[in-house]
Amino acid sequence: MADRRGSARLAVTAFAVVTVMATLVSGSAAASEDVGDLDATATALPPATVRAVAASDADIAETARARVAAMTLREKAASVVMGHVPTQSKSQLRDYMAEDGLGGFLLMGSNIPASESALRSLTDALVVDSTFEPLIAIDQEGGDVSRLPWDDFPSSLTLKNEPPENTRDAFAGRAALVARAGIGVNFGVVADETDDPGMFIYRRALGTSPTSAAARVAAAVEGEGAMAASTLKHFPGHGAAPGDSHAGIPSTDLDYDRWRTSDGLPFETGVDAGAPLVMFGHLRYTSVDDEPATLSTEWHRIAREELGFDGVAITDDLGMLEASGIADYDDPVTNAVAALAAGNDMVLTVLYSTPRTAGRIVDGIVDAVERGELTEQRLDEAAQRVATLRLELTAAGRALTP
């Protein structure tokens, strides 16, 4: 099967240098002006450019294997954890990342300062090793889920009713803002679809049918591809499962065959478009597996073998499983180990997290490997996928060179 990631991997293996803000952000003059009004120092930054790099996919993959092979068990465990602490203190953030050597950090609203330049300074503090930068991520969908106050590009609220090329242009501009801030990963492409305005996910979905969502998801990935690593969420699809996964485990009896031609279509199209990450949702498709997709080996098999996804599989926030109130999911360490064993490459912890939660999860992963509950081979596979993406983003110079 052909590698489906190459077209959207930040142009990391290309030799071209792409001028960004003059072309992408010019698609929304209002957005560009608003950035300047909000932060006078941001306008002083010269046009950002993607760094030219000569590393090939094979070179990066081999370097990733070598890095993981040189890691201790605990270092490998830490590399597959994406954490969060609610602070804008650069020293606290740097200490948090350095203490356990975490592989990633998710920026939430509590981390976002008032200006673009201040945010860039904050994300710089998250980088402990400039040769192997962590995955710095953000939920920048636009519209209802927007962490960057200066993002005025159109969102799903209107894009779902406009031609797909408008989605491409909006996400190209949005990705430029994300990258200017030193953020490599955007959890911004909602691949769920529904035509029911009463559904939790309706306002955030890019389409009201499988085909319309698929066209816009592909366009969003294409738009983001040169500037940020796109993430498809919430696999296998929130639209078919009523309810809010922040407070329960939405369920559906939709079977696999119907899923493949309906809610699965936008994810398949997004994978084909080159999205390097897929976020697995806390969604139960009972005809496929009684476990939530996050903890389902079958849904991970489907993503890999049926859709051809070969990138980084990441969980939705594991704290949401705790919030469900289901006793089986009340331990974040148990949830993380189960998620890795099911096939996730990275586990995300935000809700209920303290500065020690990520470290506890790292310790739990190590214990699970030593007990034989999680194989070291599975951990190595996950760590290598994460390391590959980290090296790709590092090679791109955190996407931008001011």
Characterize the structure shown.
- The structure is a single chain.
- With 402 residues, the chain is of the alpha/beta class.
- The chain has a single domain (6-395), classed as TIM Barrel (Alpha-Beta Barrel).
- 42% of the residues lie in helices and 9% in strands.
- The chain has an 8-stranded parallel beta sheet with strand order 9-7-5-4-3-2-1-10. It has a two-stranded parallel ribbon with strand order 6-8.
- The model is unreliable at 1-54 and 398-402 (pLDDT under 50).
How is the secondary structure organized here?
Elements: H1 29-38, H2 40-44, H3 57-70, H4 73-79, E1 81-83, H5 90-100, E2 104-107, H6 116-125, E3 135-138, H7 156-159, H8 164-180, E4 185-190, H9 210-224, E5 229-235, E6 251-252, H10 256-261, H11 264-273, E7 277-280, E8 284-285, H12 297-306, E9 312-315, H13 319-323, H14 332-342, E10 347-348, H15 357-371, H16 376-395
Parallel strand pairs: 1-2, 1-10, 2-3, 3-4, 4-5, 5-7, 6-8, 7-9
Helix pairs in contact: 3-16, 4-15, 4-16, 5-6, 8-9, 9-11, 14-15
Query: What strand line-up does the widest sheet have?
Result: 9-7-5-4-3-2-1-10
Return the string of H and E elements: HHHHEHEHEHHEHEEHHEEHEHHEHH
Count of discrete structural domains? 1
CATH superfamily: Glycoside hydrolase, family 3, N-terminal domain
Structural class estimated from helices and strands: alpha/beta
Query: Can you tell me the CATH class?
Result: Alpha Beta
Q: On the 0-100 scale, what is the average pLDDT?
A: 87
Largest sheet: 8 strands, parallel
CATH architecture descriptor = Alpha-Beta Barrel
